[in-house]
Amino acid sequence: MLAGDSRAPVERAFLVGIDYRVRSRGAPGSQAAHAALTSGAQAARDGATLAAASKAPSVPQFSAEESLEELRALAISAGAQVAGEFLQHRDKPDPATLIGKGKLEEIAGAAASVSADLLLFDHDLTASQQRNIEKVVHARVIDRTQLILDIFARHARTREGQLQVELAQMEYLLPRLGGHGIEMSQLGGGIGTRGPGETQLETDRRKIYRRIRHVKQQIENVRRIRAQQRQRRESAPVATVALVGYTNAGKSTLFNALTQAAVLASPKMFATLDPTIRSVTLPSKRKALLSDTVGFIRNLPHTLVSAFRATLEELQRAALILHVSDASSPLSAEQDAQVERVLKELEVEGKPRLRVMNKIDLLSPKQRDSLRDDANTVHVSAAKGVGMSTLLDRIDQLLSEDAIRRIHLRVPQKEGKTLAMLEARARIYSRAYKDGLVELEAEAPESVVRRVREWMVS
User: What confidence tens digit (pLDDT) does each residue in 269-289 have?
Assistant: First the structure.
């Protein structure tokens, strides 16, 4: 099935979640602590992390049920119909089949009873695990990373986005070549087999390595063009403000509300892949550039972070990062922790930051009444337009580019263009007409002050 092919039949997916109970050793004589971790959290926590857990502040974790709910949303975003689901509790993964052959046969029967076309595992699978599971269940098996890559392939629209997804797909598939063959190309069908771009990949590693090198070169050309565009933007004193946040936190809706743009705003996960930059006018009449970026997610595949580094470079150049959170989500703290991890990986965690708690319209009246903005947090509803003026004021206060100055001017009335420019780009507090002059008291950005310096009165 091709990305975005609405004529293809809807696939029925059976979801498999795994809850690992990890026992950490306590001090002598104390009871062992039991922590139920999601598959992604278990993979991320090695022995050293567990040993340091008592010293470091704990990072909120998704429960197995919450992780499975997120997998359900991912499956729907990939165009699947969820036919059933299964959550297994285990002490440790089975090296051959992840969940054990007996339990796998039980899942195979449950999946067959609902006519499932594929099984989606809320865990990363090795190539051998994937093959072993497929032999038992007699259906296609997709792991979490492959599902996310498929959604990215479905939603990438620009050439840049398609190249970045293709690179991530090939780097993911390269160690899994054995035993796949036709599934590597667009001649395969269904979720997880959307081919990268228009290229039919073959199992010849040399050809794939050659294609990877070619795609990396094309992405490098994109980065160079983007760097040139950024350099031209930076030559003017206009600050860039980047939106980041967990997928489906409402970034694109907020972007549209602030810029009056028409970026796709969808409840589906990863609806926005291709970066968009638009100008926004701040209350001080300064201009700023607002950048909408791809949403983050728990355990975002490393291949995707690497492939989208050219896009995410906008974050490194931004003067201010707006971290958009879903105030209505019970998982808000866990989602924010995952965003922090990606920001740290991109080495931008030290950037000036403003937390934007979005979707307050979904809270109860009592919850809304208890909300209080502070120096680091603003509460808004992008969908209802609530809090937009407060947010713009706060952005204006936090940006230092093109600083605002209070000025006193006497401009000849015949200087119509200058007076029109001041009207559009300065905040005018008083105006008086005398002897063919317009006397103004105003606040204006430094870039405007330079253009009217000859009429300034000290």
Answer: 565 555 678 889 999 888 899
For residues 15 and 143, what is the distance between their CA atoms, to the nearest angstrom?
A: 10
Is the same domain home to 26 and 102?
yes
Range of the domain at 351: 236-398
Interval 63-67 mean pLDDT: 87
CB 252 within 8 A of CB 292: yes
179: left (phi over 0), alpha (psi -120 to 50) or beta: left
Q: Are residues 105 and 79 in the same domain?
A: yes
More confident residue, 151 or 84: 84
Residue 408 and residue 351 share a domain: no
What are the pLDDT digits (tens) for 366-394? 999 999 999 899 999 999 999 999 999 99
Residues 246, 347 within the same domain: yes
Within a domain: 224: no
Q: What is the C-alpha to C-alpha distance for residues 76 and 53, in angstroms, rounded to an integer? A: 35
Residue 317 CA to residue 224 CA, distance in Å, equals: 15
Residue 183: predicted pLDDT: 44
Count of helices and strands (H, E) across the chain: 16, 14
Is residue 410 within 8 Å of 454, Cβ to Cβ? no
CATH of the domain at 100: 3.40.50.11060
Query: Looking at the structure, do residues 47 and 139 belong to the same domain, yes or no?
Result: yes
- Spatial contact of 362 and 328, defined as CB atoms under 8 Å apart: yes
User: 111: buried, middle or exposed (CB in 10 Å: 19+, 13-18, 0-12)?
Assistant: buried
Of 147, 170, 201, the position where a domain reaches its end is 147
CA distance 224 to 210: 21
What is the band of 190 on the pLDDT scale with cuts at 50, 70, 90?
Answer: low
Taking 50 as the threshold, does the pLDDT of residue 4 lie above it? no
Asked, for residue 225, whether it belongs to a domain, the answer is no
What predicted TM-score, i.e. pTM, was given to this entire model? Answer: 0.72
